[in-house]
Amino acid sequence: MAVVLWHIEVSHYNEKARWALDYKGVAHVRRSLLPGLHVGRVLWMTGQKSVPVLEFDQRTIADSTRIIGALEAAHPEPPLYPANPADRARALALEEFFDEEVGPHIRRVLFSMLLPHTAYAADLVSTGFGTTTRSLYRAVFPALRIAFRYDMGIEERRVERSRERIAAGLDRLEAERQPSGYLVGEHFSVADLTAAALLFPLVWPREVPYALPEPLPEPAASYRASLASRPAFAWVEEMYRRHRGHSAEVAA
Question: pLDDT tens-digit profile of 38-54?
Fold first, then answer.
């Protein structure tokens, strides 16, 4: 049975799963889905609506954290979980922190600034599809935008609170860095992968396998520029440079 990743190309949680597959060299097929229109298929597969979803080892696994756990069990080398129990507990705690306390807030803030730009937002989230599909998606995007705003909780008070949570997440990343440059011990771990992957939409390092449409609209461009001098920004770029490596994607 082929390993198949169902994903949305621009999603940071999906990037977390892609990076884990690539880092471990697990050959896999990628099936791209269109945001909003993905729900029916994913519900049918898993009983919930979120991606990534991995078909792996006779199982269908939803959630990036569970996907990494399954990959680590089946393909322990190179490791993402530290061998030392205390280091492993710390790495998993940092994974949970960035999953729960940073990732959703990045999505809310960025989409609050991008959704009003119909053509740009539609093209961004339909990256990887053909011209006809992207044109049709752009046509229905105004209706989907309503659902996206509701699903992401985009309203002024919550967006402002999310900006604060992102800043706090960057503060913690900068405080947690060890002399090695990693978040736990001397080696790259699930903590580093998670933090870098979930922050990638703010940075968009060159190693990301999908291109960011340019130019980035305002005020998103100014928000991104306001973070560029932070040590955490450079750290994300460095983690991608060191460890993003080659893709393990194979043809269907």
Answer: 999 999 999 999 999 99
Is the pTM of the predicted complex or chain greater than 0.85?
Answer: yes
Q: Amino acid letter at 182?
A: Y
Residues β-bridged to residue 40: none
DSSP string for residues in 128-158? TS-HHHHHHHHHHHHHHHHHHHHHHT--HHH
> What is the second-level CATH architecture of the domain 4-74?
3-Layer(aba) Sandwich (3.40)
For 160-171, what is each residue's pLDDT tens digit? 999 999 999 999
Give the residues across from 55 on adjacent strands: 4, 60
Residue partners of 225: CB distance under 8 A and separation at least 6: none
Query: Strand 29-32 and strand 59-62: pairing?
Result: unpaired
Residue 1 has pLDDT above 80, yes or no: no
Domain ranges of the chain: 4-74, 85-243
Nearest to 51 by CA among 70, 30, 72: 30
Which DSSP symbol is given to 26?
-
The CA-atom distances, in angstroms, between 205 and each of 14, 99, 143, 250 are 16, 20, 31, 23
Domain 85-243: give its CATH architecture: Up-down Bundle (1.20)
State how far Cα 72 lies from the chain centre. 19
